[in-house]
Specification:
3-stranded antiparallel β-sheet, 12 strands, globular
Length: 258
Amino acid sequence: MKLPVELIDRAEAQYKKEPEEIAKIRERIKKEDARTLDGNAQFERRKEMIASVAREDVLDAQERYLGANDLLPINYLLLGYLQSRSVGRLRYFDKVEGKVATATGFLISDSLVMTNHHVFPVADLPAFRNFAEDATIEFNYEFSLDGDRTDAITYDLAPEEFLFTDKALDMTILAVKPIDRSGTHNIREQGYLVLNGALGKAGLGDFATIIQHPEGHPKQVALRNNSIIDMSLADAIIYVSDTAPGSSGAPVFNNEWQ
């Protein structure tokens, strides 16, 4: 799976900031408090959202947003692992390139997978069939506590049952079969990530944690050395993080695992 040059050009045109400017933004984030960075309205929305979803003492969670404390409760790790169960490795034969391609996707219901449009750059079912063959999503493709690679649980994608694409937002949603290829697992075992359209989930300087399959490798997480650096665009949040080809379609989380 390639990142289209057209998509890169569009992103650069939409966000015209040089590396020096981005470095200055990151320095500003280090020095200024959350209210100054986000503005009063977003600051209040962010506090309200944190209070509604925090799995810890609300004051501790809000203090972390304010920048006074970067410690996390130990349940943060468990919550992250539970969210990761809904993230899988997409794998298919690219009929255009003539080779196997991989990417990342995640469940948004017990029957629908979301990924990027450029993972499956098609507009409808006939185009999908001409582009991809043997399209699957593999869950549990990761390392165990012992450092062994666990066996993936493979489900067939079902674009004939549901397929929605939006090239402008670089988004595709498609159905997945309810039973895995071995006939022993139900997709409901993986859970799904809840989409929430309310504002207040992200603030300038917040961490942007990404669960992903970079280069098609077993599941990994970009946990730190990442941050949201700009929220001024109408339909995009700009963040910096470690990713790689194959990470396309991965979900991006805040500190509350939203």
